[in-house]
Amino acid sequence: MHRRALIGPTRVVPRDAVASVLWLPGSIRGGGVATGLLVLLDAERRPLLRLDGAWWGAGRLAALATWSAHP
């Protein structure tokens, strides 16, 4: 997975490094809008990558969570 930010380097997480996916569809941010939070974890349950639905969109993160969980 590649995450490209507007500023800064591209973050690359190899698919085989992802041991589990944590999808929080009801994560609330600021004004009470459900945005979602997707976290990719390694085998020791350390976060490899966090994606916030406020930026990426809850629908896109939900689809990505399904894709990430099925190698």
Describe the overall structure.
By secondary structure, the protein is an alpha+beta fold. The protein is built from two helices and seven strands. The protein has helices at residues 53-56, 58-69, and strands at residues 2-3, 11-12, 20-24, 28-29, 33-34, 37-41, 47-52. The strands form three sheets. The chain has a three-stranded antiparallel sheet. The protein has a two-stranded antiparallel sheet with strand order 1-2. A two-stranded antiparallel sheet has the order 4-5. The longest helix is centred in the last third of the chain and has 12 residues, at 58-69. The chain starts with a strand and ends with a helix.
Secondary structure: number of strands? 7
Poorly predicted regions are: none
- Helices and strands, in order, run as EEEEEEEHH
CA-atom Rg in angstroms:
12 Å
Indicate the overall shape.
globular
Please describe the biggest sheet, giving its number of strands, its sense, and whether it closes into a barrel.
3 strands, antiparallel
| Secondary-structure-derived class | alpha+beta
Mean pLDDT: 78
- Beta content comes to 25-35%
Distance between the termini: 12 Å
What is the tally of helical segments? 2
Strand arrangement in the largest pleated sheet: 3-6-7
